[in-house]
Specification:
The complex is a heterodimer.
Chain A (H helix, E strand, L loop, with lengths): L1 H5 L4 H8 L5 H13 L1 H22 L12 H24 L2 H12 L3 H6 L1 H5 L12 E7 L11 H12 E6 L3 E2 L3 H8 L14 E7 L1 E7 L2 H10 L15 E6 L2 E6 L17 E7 L2 E3 L6 H11 L4 H10 L5 E7 L2 E8 L2 E8 L7 E8 L2 E8 L2 H9 L3
Parallel strand pairs in A: 1-10
Antiparallel strand pairs in A: 2-5, 3-4, 4-7, 5-6, 6-9, 7-8, 8-14, 11-12, 12-13, 13-14
Helix pairs in contact in A: 2-4, 6-9, 6-12, 9-11, 12-13
Chain B lengths: L7 H11 L9 H28 L2 H22 L5 H18 L1 H18 L5 H20 L2 H10 L5 H8 L6 H21 L1
Helix pairs in contact in B: 1-2, 2-3, 2-4, 3-4, 4-8, 5-6, 6-9, 7-9
The chains are: A alpha+beta, B mainly alpha.
């Protein structure tokens, strides 16, 4: 033991020595040293006294007869209650969708909700649409879901209430099953095009889904209050938005299904079969008061996706909000612009390649918005999309 | 010191032996649940005792203990049992307890109640004495609240009977530094305590 040879010990050594928390060798070395060192003995005495005093004071805090202590079993029962209450609050937080709901709020504010209502497949991928007065092109907006504020447990119900107070959706007709693309074209009023790839399974469903008219009157103070509660009080919404009535018309949509989709979670063994959905519709249109600063609202929406103020500003100024469909895509997905059907579209898929792969393609051609989603690789998706006639 | 923090495993095993035999499925979830049960039974009382020292109120201590075990539960659901369970458990315990200690107002209120409670249970003690005891405890907690969190936590753990190695694990210190830090913390406590007395 070097230190015993040097005959020098620290205060910490002595403190541990008093508590007998050192190795036996070390304890012994200090004991021996103390025999010969008056100064050290004095030091140990001081430390012991102080430690005793502190211990005495802290002992006052010790549980005495603890009249209120509960038994282990009833404590366990209390813990069960506590855990289930906590889990419940986490669940409701998750499913009322604080994160995605908030993105949604942004969308409602600009009345694009209509589009996601009409595209259930799209909505399923947590994709939302923005600011399309008439869609002519698509831009991908990667966002980091984890950057979306989470301190908004309580806004779910408020949001529901606000929507039910201010949003009116009128569906125009019923879903109709049709037999041929010609029939679909006649009902939907667009030239329906279908894929002819040999790799595709058979057409198992063709239906025409009704369009909708959506109207929302913005209660700006309420929107601001909700955003504030959700921790977005630094995001500005233009004053003109208050009481503005925004309408969206979502046209009739044609929906085609290929392959065996009854068990959508079953993995496909090859790329050649499986389940694919194609939907197509004329571009939805959105009407808003002319004095509304769409770039400003778009900017607010971008901030909701976690973008910094500077980035949102520059993005917003460089995008034509009146014609561009913004596709927010979580960062941890694989997304890219692709050439499809003779135009530039967007591909979204899972980042890692699993045996179960899914894809989504969205593009706009001749005023018609197309969406294709299903199981398979990007290659499969493009093959199918490019075979559309 | 009856148990050591590192002895969690054998304790769980014992808790299992004592548990009424249930129909056993071999599922993982079942094991996790059994594990949790054992850990709860082994540590609940000690966790409560540490928290009681910090907050001075049985109900408050138990509420905090519920939070400690909820965090353990959630953690083990997500990431499995923490690697050094005992260290993790007592780290969370002293952190929560110390934060509660620092929320000063409520504590004063508790101490008053505690004084009354003591009177109810020890009727031979006169009011003045009970009040004095409550005041003394209040004094100690006041000093702890002013100290550096780690120092205060160190004192609480040590003077609750935890060994240096247990403290090192719980507070993430090197075992060799506990003596030095403890000596320093006691000096600081003494200084602050005497300053308070003199006023």
């Amino acid at each position: 033991m070097f230190r015993s040879q040097k005959e020098h010990f620290t205060e910490g050594d002595f403190r541990a020595y008093i508590d007998e928390q050192l190795s036996e060798t070390m304890q012994e070395a200090i004991r021996a040293h103390l025999q010969t060192c008056d100064h050290c003995r004095e030091q140990v005495r001081t430390i012991t006294g102080r430690s005793g005093m502190v211990g005495q004071e802290l002992q006052r805090l010790a549980p005495s007869n603890r009249p209120g202590a509960v038994s282990l079993n009833s404590a366990r029962a209390r813990l069960d209650t506590y855990i289930s209450a906590k889990e419940k609050s986490i669940m409701s937080n998750r499913f009322l969708g604080s994160r995605y709901r908030l993105l949604w709020t942004g969308l409602v504010v600009i009345a694009i909700l209509a589009v996601s209502l009409a595209f259930p497949q799209v909505r399923a991928l947590a994709v939302n649409f923005l600011g399309l007065f008439r869609v002519e092109q698509i831009a991908i907006l990667p966002f980091d879901p984890s950057s979306i504020s989470q301190n908004n447990q309580s806004i779910g119900p408020q949001l529901d209430k606000m929507l039910s107070d201010t949003l009116v959706v009128e569906a125009q007709g019923e879903v109709q099953q049709v037999a041929t693309p010609e029939e679909a074209s006649a009902l939907a009023g667009i030239p329906v095009r279908l894929p002819e790839a040999s790799t595709l399974g058979s057409l198992t469903r063709l239906e025409v889904q009704p369009g909708a008219h959506v109207e929302i009157t913005v209660d700006l103070p309420r929107v601001r209050a909700i955003m504030k509660e959700a921790g977005y009080d630094d995001i500005e919404l233009p004053d003109e938005l208050d009481n503005a009535t925004i309408t969206a018309d979502v046209p009739t949509m044609v929906f085609a299904q290929y392959g065996a989709c009854d068990n959508p979670s079953a993995p496909t063994t090859t790329d050649t079969h499986g389940c694919h959905h194609l939907f197509q519709m004329a571009s939805p249109t959105v009407n808003a008061p002319a004095d509304l600063d769409i770039a400003k609202i778009g900017e607010a929406f971008l901030r909701l996706t976690g973008m910094s103020e500077t980035d949102a500003k520059s993005f917003s100024q460089n995008v034509d909000w009146a014609t561009t469909l913004i596709l927010p895509v979580p960062m941890n997905t694989d997304y890219q612009e692709v050439e499809v059907d003779g135009v530039t579209g967007a591909y979204v898929g899972p980042q890692q390649s699993y045996s179960y792969q899914s894809y989504m393609l969205i593009w706009v051609k001749d005023g018609i918005v197309y969406g294709l989603e299903g199981r398979g690789s990007k290659y499969t998706a493009l093959t199918i999309a490019n075979s559309i006639k | 010191m009856v148990d050591t923090i590192n002895n969690v495993r054998p304790k769980i095993a014992r808790a299992h032996e004592n548990a009424p035999s249930e129909s056993n499925t071999d599922s993982e979830a079942r094991n996790t649940a059994d594990d949790f049960e054992g850990i709860f039974r082994a540590h609940w009382t000690r966790v409560c005792a540490v928290l009681y020292r910090l907050v001075g109120d049985q109900d408050e201590a138990e509420d905090l203990a519920l939070e400690v075990f909820w965090r353990l539960y959630r953690r083990s659901m997500k990431a499995g049992k923490p690697e050094n369970l005992g260290g993790w458990l007592y780290r969370v315990t002293v952190n929560l307890g110390y934060n509660a200690l620092r929320s000063y107002k409520r504590r004063t209120q508790y101490e008053e109640q505690a004084g009354h409670l003591l009177l109810d249970h020890q009727p031979d003690l006169n009011t003045a004495q009970a009040a004095e005891q409550a005041e003394d405890r209040e004094q100690v907690r006041k000093v702890l609240a002013k100290m550096k969190p780690r120092d205060a936590q160190l004192l609480i753990l040590r003077h609750s009977g935890y060994s240096y190695s247990e403290i090192a694990i719980a507070l993430e210190l090197s075992p060799g530094s506990v003596g030095t830090l403890l000596a320093r913390a006691e000096k600081d406590f003494e200084k602050r305590f005497l300053a308070l007395e003199r006023r």
